[in-house]
Amino acid sequence: MTAAFMEGCMNIYSWLHIHNRVRPHKIALKYHERGVTYSELFRLTDSLGSALHDAGIKRDDRVVIMLPNIPEFVISYMSIIGIGAIVIPVNPSYTSHELMQYTG
What we know:
Largest sheet: 2 strands, antiparallel
Order of helices and strands: HHEEHEHEH
CATH class: Alpha Beta
Shape: globular
Strand content: 15-25%
Distance between the termini: 40 Å
Number of strands: 4
Helix content: 40-55%
Strand order of the largest sheet: 1-2
């Protein structure tokens, strides 16, 4: 455990960054029969994070994720955290009325 983690300064994106360096070829996610390594997860997360940033999403912005339990949820979640924005996960089975409660 790093000192930053012990002090509460580390977010989940920092954890991914460390695992990408320390164990890039280990499986980070498994979905059906496909494994995603830490290096693949980091690359995908970093790429989406850059695209979100280029689209104007910045630190402390709130971003809704409405995805089922698939690798893209994890990639999106990590990307948003990585740029310092706030993730708001929403159940994909919500009705439009329920969704309006989150999006106003």
